[in-house]
Design goal:
Helices cover 43% and strands 15% of the residues. By secondary structure, it is α/β, with parallel strands linked by helices. The protein has one domain (4-254): TIM Barrel, CATH 3.20.20.70. It starts with a strand and ends with a helix. The structure holds 1,3-dihydroxyacetonephosphate. Residues 9, 98, 172, 177-178, 216-219, 237-241 line the site of 1,3-dihydroxyacetonephosphate.
Length: 255
């Protein structure tokens, strides 16, 4: 079902104690707001925080997500955390394909597809991130549209339509992440529309109309409303501005 989602990606920030406090504030805010059906709040704290945060939030009001999961099932993979381990502590969704993981940890479409399938097999929703770099944007629309489409074709477009229904797409232009440069509402809409059309071409219009497509990249209280107002933008994946409960609350209220 197409939803309106405001998701906070905490990245590698906050102590466990501070993270639990932040999560409690966000949960209390969600309880007090009584959000309409179809509007959801997601938070994605670091792995170390997940169990404590799961115990601190109202799971009917805030969806707990992880920022990554392993590309294998349990076994001899030092340092990894599997989708089934996440499921076991109350995690409901996982962010995969974030540009920071692609860039710093060399995650490619092949690895990401394995992660996606394992997450789906555990019943987790997947927030799948795609987006072009600054150089790709500067090379022109033909190139960046093809880059974004290829990120879909090589991964989530190989799923069945039923599997794809558990995928939330997050368009995050790499040049806008943590830079203070935001895509204009028009730039975001142009790409979201292109993504929805690519989904329609692959899975049919009904699936495309049902897909939630989030925008991420320097989205904050001051610009969220105008971006979320665009017809193909179904909310946001928020980094820096999700670390302060007040700011995150204003973004939740933006649409
Ligand atoms: P910022 O909101 O800090 O630019 O980060 C966006 C992001 O990467 C969310 O996943």
């Amino acid at each position: 079902m197409r939803k309106l989602i405001v998701a906070g990606n905490w990245k590698m920030n906050t102590s466990v104690a501070d993270g639990v406090e932040l999560a409690k504030k966000i949960s209390a805010y969600a309880e007090q707001k009584n959000l309409p059906a179809g509007k959801e709040i997601v938070i994605a704290p670091p792995f170390t925080h997940l169990a404590s945060v799961a115990a601190a939030i109202n799971p009917n009001k805030v969806i707990l997500a992880a920022q990554d999961c392993a590309a294998t099932t349990n076994g001899a993979y030092t340092g990894e955390v599997s989708a089934s381990m996440l499921k076991g502590i109350g995690v409901k969704a996982v962010i995969l394909g974030h540009s920071e993981r692609r860039q710093y940890f060399k995650e490619n479409s092949e690895i990401l597809l394995k992660k996606i399938k394992l997450a789906l097999a555990e019943g987790l929703d997947v927030i799948f991130c795609i987006g072009e770099t600054k150089e790709q944007r500067e090379a022109g629309a033909n190139l960046y549209n093809n880059v974004i489409k290829a990120q879909l074709v090589d991964t989530v477009f190989t799923l069945t339509a039923d599997e794809f229904k558990k995928i939330i797409i997050a368009y995050e232009p790499v040049w806008a992440i943590g830079t203070g440069l935001t895509a204009t509402p028009e730039q975001a809409q142009e790409i979201h529309e292109m993504i929805r059309k690519a989904i329609a071409d692959n899975f049919g219009k009904a699936v495309a109309d049902d897909t939630t497509i989030l925008y991420g990249g320097s989205c904050k209280a001051s610009n969220a409303a105008e971006i979320f107002a665009k017809k193909d933008v179904d909310g946001g994946l928020i980094g820096g501005a999700s670390l302060k409960a007040d700011d995150f609350g204003k973004i939740i209220d933006a649409r």
